[in-house]
From TrEMBL:
Keywords: ATP synthesis, Cell membrane, CF(1), Hydrogen ion transport, Ion transport, Membrane, Transport. It comes from Lacticaseibacillus baoqingensis. F-type ATPases have 2 components, CF(1) - the catalytic core - and CF(0) - the membrane proton channel. CF(1) has five subunits: alpha(3), beta(3), gamma(1), delta(1), epsilon(1). CF(0) has three main subunits: a, b and c. InterPro entries: ATP_F1_dsu/esu_C_sf, ATP_synth_F1_dsu/esu, ATP_synth_F1_dsu/esu_N, ATP_synth_F1_esu_C, ATPsynth_dsu/esu_N. The keyword S-adenosyl-L-methionine does not apply. Transmembrane segments: none annotated. Belongs to the ATPase epsilon chain family. This is ATP synthase epsilon chain.
Amino acid sequence: MAELSNVVTVNIVTPNGLVYDHHADLVVVKTIAGELGIMANHEPVVAPLVIGEVRVQRTDNPGHEDVIAVNGGFMEMSNNTASIVADSAERERDIDLTRAQAARDRAQRRIEEAKSKADPDELQRAQVALQRAINRIHVKTGK
């Protein structure tokens, strides 16, 4: 195994518990300012995350990348540990594509209903639900 000073430990935690815990050569997150790539010995940073995917190039499987759907939260990098605290997160292998597609369809219907009722709060909630569903679909299908 690589020296621990040359790897990043990546932890993803949600209110439901630990979702992901591995050593990586590189982790890429989507922040409000854009994508941020983190490698070993990176300066300490805290960054708010948007709905998007987290990509992890694991040290134990070169050439393979784990992809995790993350729905907001923040990432803290310190002492070669990237800790992600997310509202919710799902590994690609755990995403039910049929369920994600149904959530997308429901959100699209809710958007149309909110527009017809001129309900800005419901419209915003439905748009967030749509972003989350699309994120899960993209992570599962790789598209």
